[in-house]
TrEMBL record:
Organism (species): Paenarthrobacter aurescens
Matches recorded under InterPro entries: Creatinase/aminopeptidase-like, Pept_M24, Peptidase_M24B
Protein name from the UniProt record: Peptidase M24 domain-containing protein
Domain Peptidase M24 residues, every copy: 160-346
Pfam families: Peptidase_M24
């Protein structure tokens, strides 16, 4: 059983000089209502949030991790009386000072205690609704970004794009893949974000679409991928650098994969279902000369936001697209891939991961990235 955290939360917050909880009061009120709507539809009185995706969304950007590969160090019970965050006793001071939004009650368990059980015990009947029972409903609640989080997402995306430009502009054929991703990691961390994914394949490894870095020099041509998280939101982008003019085959494939992406962008409209977009993706590959089975060789992306993909789109995902929903589509073919984080607005798709220094070209009326040739 948890005990109420007895430290003076107000004093903790007053003493914090390096960071304040990012939660926006107006946005958090909307998110709480969305959670209460889930309870109403389920006929239940409490909801237990335990995943990093759900927690960072509901708390509007709080950091609830220590290890990027570990489970969250907090669990949160949403009930009709309020919000109750449970964390370990050795995490409570930092959480209170730097991560706890106003209006959230803080509880602790010993560092060796059981977070989920302790949070569940706070429910009136001890049996709250769990995430697994309302996966689709929670995903729908996250779909539409609110004003403050949309602004944070745009800032993160621009920072990630700038980091990519800085690093690839300075690269040479002798730069190793590990050197390149380590420089990207340093740039991402320097802007207060966490590099969740860092990929690179040089010319000798261009056939790999999820290429973890090696000590190989990148050579004449390379791809770099960054997925960066800040305040819970994840920005994703892919860029290419080359040190020659490129072969006719490479240039043709780059143009064709951009055309596939343009078809996907045109299909990403309010009211469309994701499985319908997925069907269109498969058709786009065939239409632009990549073959009917190209979609089977790599995932195609999907909605973004508080997860790298929320979710990856398949024929079984029937979610309906809504306004102010973010996406990262990533069509790819042999030796080519294109990827940016975008937001669906009332004036169309807005590309968030942009840097004016990066070379681009117009594709279907939208500026899209070219291969950088320093």
């Amino acid at each position: 059983m948890t005990t109420q955290f007895t430290a003076d939360v107000t004093a903790y917050k007053a003493s914090a000089t390096t960071r304040t909880a990012p939660g926006n009061v107006a946005d958090r009120a909307v998110k709480r209502q969305r959670a209460l709507d889930i309870l109403d539809a389920s006929g239940r009185d409490s909801l237990l949030l335990t995943s990093n995706t759900a927690l960072t969304w509901y708390l509007d950007g709080s950091r609830v991790h220590i290890s990027l590969a570990g489970d969250p160090i907090a669990a949160l019970l949403v009930d009709r009386s309020g919000d109750h965050l449970v964390t370990f006793n050795n995490e409570a001071g930092r959480m209170a000072a730097e991560e706890l939004p106003d209006g959230v009650n803080l509880h602790t368990v010993p560092w060796h205690g059981q977070l989920h059980a302790a949070a569940a015990d706070l429910a009136v009947d001890g049996h709250p609704l769990v995430e697994a029972a309302v996966t689709t409903e929670l995903r729908a609640a996250r779909q539409q970004l609110l004003p403050a989080e949309a602004a944070r997402y745009a800032e993160l995306s621009a920072d990630a794009a700038a980091a990519m430009t800085d690093v690839l502009t300075a690269a040479t054929p002798e730069t190793t893949e590990f050197e390149l991703v380590s420089q990207l990691a340093a740039k991402i961390v320097a802007v207060g974000a966490e590099p969740l994914v860092l990929l690179c394949n040089g010319a000798s490894r261009s056939e790999f679409r999820h290429p973890l870095a090696t000590h190989s020099p990148i050579g004449r041509r390379a791809m770099a991928v960054v997925c960066a998280r800040r305040n819970g939101l994840v920005a994703n982008l892919t860029r290419w650098v080359a040190f020659d003019a490129g072969t006719p085959q490479e240039l043709d494939a780059e143009a064709r994969i951009a055309a596939v992406e343009a078809d996907i962008f045109r299909a990403t409209v309010p009211g469309a279902r994701l499985n319908e977009v997925f069907t269109g993706i498969k058709q786009a590959y065939a239409r632009h000369g990549f073959g009917e089975d190209q979609w089977t060789l790599h995932h195609q992306g999907g909605p973004a936001g508080y997860a790298g993909r929320d979710p990856r789109v398949t024929a079984e995902v029937t979610d309906t697209i809504v306004l102010n929903q973010p996406f990262t589509w990533n069509p790819s073919g042999p030796g080519v891939k294109i990827e940016d984080t975008v937001l669906l607005t009332d004036s169309g798709l807005r590309v968030l991961t942009t840097d004016h220094r990066w070379p681009g070209t117009q594709v279907d009326g939208r500026r899209r990235p070219l291969t950088l040739r320093p």
